[in-house]
Amino acid sequence: MKRDMNFIGHSKIFFTISLCIILIGIVCNIIFGATLDIQFKGGTIITYGFVGEVDENALKDTIQGATPDNNVTFTITRDILNNTEDEDAYAIQIQFSGEEAIETADQQAITDALTEAFPDNGFVYQEASSVEASMGLKFLLKCLVAVAIASVLMVLYVTIRFKRIGGLSAGVMALVALFHDVAMIYFMYVIFRMPIDSNFIAVVLMILGYSLNDTIVIYDRVREERRVMGPKADLADVFNHSASSVFSRTIATSITTLVAIATVYVVAVIFSLDSVQSFALPMMIGVVSGCYSSLCIAGPLWVFWNKRKQSS
Amino acid sequence: MKRIPKPVFFIVAILILVFACTAFFGVKYYDGDVQHTVIKGLSDIRWGIDIRGGVEATFKPAGEVDATDEQLDSAKSIIETRMVSSGITDYELYVDYGSDRIIVRYPWKEDETEFDPVAAIDELAATAHLSFRNSDGEELMDGSSVQSAQAGVNTESGSSSEYLVLLDLTDEGADLFASITEEYLNQTIAIYMDDIELSAPTVQSVISDGSAQITGDFTAEEAVQLANQINGGALPFDLETASFGSVSATLGQNSLIAMGYAAIIAFVLIALFMILRYRVPGFVAVIALIGQLALSVAAVSRYFNVFNSFTMTLPGIAGIILSVGMGVDANIITAERIKEEFRSGKTLDSAIERGTKNSLSAIIDGNMTVVIVSIILLLVFGPSNILSVIFGQSTTGTIYAFGYTLLVGVISNFIMGVWLSRTMLKSIAGVGFLRKKWLFGGAGK
């Protein structure tokens, strides 16, 4: 018989670690603030591809000259995929300061100005994204409401299915673990200064499902061991034994998921697909957090709640 | 344990692999140069504009105009007519009446090399020019003479009711139309929107009261559409672009190839992990995973014709990744449980029996919560759009694909990862030379 791991005994350490990360996140949030992607706050980004060297000051003057009414900033990144033998390829992202959509005529003016001023660099229009502020905000709110509805229903499901091990306490603690994971993903966005976009929503949704699955697998074992070990057994022992039994499953599943997402991430880095990268990285954080929160947050909290109820 | 006959494993495995091949590659044959698609494969999936490249635009009435639903429908039918006439059939177009928005999404055309999305969007939203022309193409009257048009039913013509379009002309229009109908009596006058011919009715009588009827073999839908199109030429507002986005096709194509590589590499790594760690149950799990993946692909490529047309986006791929993760997890939970049963001294048969039985509740509860998430996403972001009362029609979008692939993936997981995987495992456990505990996760030889 393997010795059980002591999750409950070390819970103070786990809680401290989580609280520290959350604290750092909140501090960063206050200092940097969270940035919303133009999908949500409105605004315009236009991307062009070009090859060879360009004088950045001349570039700035050209773009600004084409749209005198808007204040524009831009960033230039290497585009490894489209390199030719002689020249390096680049992508330039032009961001408009306002939070309203621009006129298509403005965009046309920039395209014309760029191709005229730098004929040798082969400026090609790649993509554009322009969103009205009010529509973006509506979409964000709708996403949040969808997440809230899904969370309430999931807690309800857990409460009903795990009536035998405290029902509501199991559901609420699973929800605390979910908040923990969402907070981790959110702070990751804040700390790395990534704008919150629809990928964020998709990652949060995925991690909600993934983390709750982790918690449920452990609860399921607790429900079973409680029957085997009898109602007299100490809850801390029941949990430690259950968590230890499913530990190898938790690790194996987390590893396979991490490997799959890491593969996606590495391929996205090689192909420099920003949208996929900004999707895969927070997902990896979420998988680790989801696995950790089920074992080290939801479980111990559930034990403490039910022990207090027993003693009162 | 209730024994399952040995051949079952091979039959199920072969069926899964055959199904997977047809789902991935499709079934096609060539009749000369013409390709016939019997079953749709990976290459027939309709990719969203975030993958294939394309245009997305939202239009709204310019200025502080509160457009009526009928006016928005007219504006929509203008855009629709223009898209169809320029050969774009693969589009999504809908109206948000609450916020007066018209949203359109469409991918690049296949053979498009030089395409200017800005010009294309401007063209779609341009004010429609309605004109009445004679058979030589000479313009006789324009849309400003039309007060309104509406579809109606002619009940006078006796036995069968006939759909028609009623034209109501302005005062000046009525005078002009009277002289036109007099000149072109018994000839055709074509109605054009921009350069697209909408209808070419024959003048049957001189119309002087400013109220004309266009008859023909209209269905109810055709009559409504023509009325909308004619009204579009007399809209009291211009459309302006509220938002637009476009993704170039090369960027989209590259991300598709990259995701393809990632999928293959990730699958090989997971397969290696499963087989090395769990041996026979791991091997069975890999076959079940192929089946699950094939079912997911079949559901988005319209392998089964019962599903509606579906557009696959990047979040949709994420949904497949999560559901495959859940599928791997279901098999890991079972295999780990069988290992545990061996540790407590069970024989091969009873370890498999108890292991599969005891792990079932965890798998069902875990997957059910994911089903809840996916159904909420489908309801909120799909066609039913249950929150549209609060947030409006325009807020659907790519997250719908995530919910769809996730739901399909989890259902596939119940079929492949739970039911068929277990059937195969119990069947293969009867094969003589494999009946060794260590091959199923037991300790030592």
Description of the molecule:
The complex is a heterodimer of chains A (312) and B (445). In chain A, strands 2-3-1-4 form a 4-stranded antiparallel beta sheet. Chain A has helices at residues 11-32, 38-41, 56-66, 104-117, 133-161, 168-191, 198-229, 235-270, 274-311; strands at 43-51, 72-78, 89-96, 124-131. Chain A contains 9 helices and 4 strands, in the order ααβαββαβααααα. Chain A is α+β, with helices and mostly antiparallel strands. Chain A has 2 domains: 11-38 and 135-311, Multidrug efflux transporter AcrB transmembrane fold; 43-131, Alpha-Beta Plaits (2-Layer Sandwich). Chain B is α+β, with helices and mostly antiparallel strands and 445 residues long. Chain B has 2 domains: 6-45 and 248-440, Multidrug efflux transporter AcrB transmembrane fold; 65-247, Gyrase A, domain 2 (2-Layer Sandwich), CATH 3.30.1360. Helices cover 51% and strands 19% of the residues of chain B. Chain B has a 4-stranded antiparallel beta sheet with strand order 5-6-4-14. The longest helix of chain B is centred in the middle third of the chain and has 53 residues, at 249-301. Chains A and B meet through helix 4, strand 4, helix 5, helix 7 and helix 8 of A and helix 4, strand 14, helix 7, helix 8 and helix 9 of B.
Number of strands of chain A: 4
Please report the first level of CATH classification, the CATH class of the largest domain in chain A.
Mainly Alpha
Strand content of chain B: 15-25%
The domain count of chain A comes to 2
What order do the helices and strands of chain A follow? HHEHEEHEHHHHH
Which regions of chain A have little confidence, pLDDT < 50, spanning 5+ residues? none
- Determine and state the CATH class of the largest domain in chain B: Mainly Alpha
| Rounded average pLDDT of chain B | 82
Apparent shape of chain A = elongated
Shape of chain B: elongated
CATH superfamily of the largest domain in chain A: Multidrug efflux transporter AcrB transmembrane domain
Class derived from helix and strand content of chain A:
alpha+beta
Strand order across the largest sheet of chain A: 2-3-1-4
Query: How many structural domains does the protein architecture of chain B include?
Result: 2
Going across the major beta sheet of chain B, what is the strand order? 5-6-4-14
The CATH superfamily of the largest domain in chain B is Multidrug efflux transporter AcrB transmembrane domain
Mean pLDDT figure of chain A: 84
CATH architecture of the largest domain in chain B: Up-down Bundle
CATH architectural group of the largest domain in chain A: Up-down Bundle
* Order of helical and strand elements of chain B: HEEEHEHEEHEEEEHEEEHEHEHHHH
What is the percent of helical residues of chain B? 40-55%
